[in-house]
Amino acid sequence: SREKAPILKVSKLVKRFGGFHALDGLSFHVVPGEILGLVGPNGSGKTTAINVISGLYAPDGGEVVFDGTSSGGVASHRLVHRGINRTFQVPKPFLSLTVRENIQVALAYGGATGAPSIPELLEDFRLKEVADRPAADLNSAQQKMLDLTRALATRPRLLLLDELAAGLNPAELDWIAGRIKALASTGMAIIVVEHLMGFIEQITDRVIVLNAGKEIFEGTLATAVREPQVIEVFLGG
Ligand code: ADP
Fold it and tell me: How far apart are CA 63 and CA 219, in angstroms?
């Protein structure tokens, strides 16, 4: 899949918070149908990268190009219509609305032709039994799945998953790994931020290792874990 033209290209991205460089010249790309992992120690800039690519933050330098068009600094709701959507570490559904209503809102808002239907999303992400319960009643795994259906309802071509797997049990992890691979097999590009290395190894084609807001390695996770400079940052050199 790496011969395909990238759907996303990030070049020399900089994001500052005060004088601190959370992203300090980050460059990478992702192609359609690829699952790319962003890994690195706490504070290395993974979530910030997702936040900039999804339009939550404007970059302070560098470039983000999505589908051939500059997208850095474009507001999230516009990027949703262009084909970028994401999940959050801590999902924030409309708590008083039912699961079905939450998905309805996303479908109405996203307005993408060819978006999956509510019954399909409920079935695919194991939310059928809780479809008519308020989102406030869901456990954390179900809230994550609802957050994912909300993103998928807008039919993204680039999906950003921020700690989707955190808190899932091993059986749920296996199952969601299969679902994520199935999404990629439809041509969706997926960027995954996760701490669980087994999960990253199971689903990604390639990883970018970040340290201090920069890429220090690009390749498979199996290769990454044998690189001295990768080992050093993970062991807290
Ligand atoms: P990671 O996801 O790799 O753990 P983050 O991208 O969350 O790292 O954070 C990178 C650095 O930027 C951290 O030092 C963090 O404290 C800082 N940071 C992230 N977001 C903000 C913010 N909104 N305001 C101030 N500092 C932030």
Answer: 22
Based on the fold, state whether residues 165 and 50 are members of the same structural domain: yes
Q: Are residues 173 and 229 in the same domain?
A: yes
Q: Quickly tell me which residue has 């149908």 as its tokens.
A: 33
Centre of ligand 1 from the C-alpha of residue 179, in Å: 29
Residues 109 and 136 in one domain: yes
At residue 109, the pLDDT reads 81
In the reported structure, the alpha carbon of residue 61 is separated from the centroid of ligand 1 by a whole-number distance in angstroms of: 17
Is the domain of 162 the same as that of 68?
yes
20 CA to centre of ligand 1 in angstroms: 9
Distance in Å, CA 45 to ligand 1 centroid: 6
- Pocket lined around ligand 1, Cβ cut-off 6 Å: 17, 22, 40, 42-48
Report the nearest-CA residue for atom 14 of ligand 1.
43
Which residue numbers in the chain have pLDDT < 50? 1
Q: Please choose from 15, 39, 47 the residue to mutate so as to test ligand 1's pocket, defined by most ligand atoms within 8 A of CB.
A: 47
* Domain CATH code at residue 160: 3.40.50.300
* CB burial string 24-47: b at 16+ within 10 A, e below: bebebbbbbbbbbbbbbbeebbbb
Q: Is the confidence metric ipTM above 0.95 for this complex?
A: yes
Q: What is the domain extent for residue 50? A: 8-83+156-234
Q: What pTM did the predictor assign?
A: 0.95
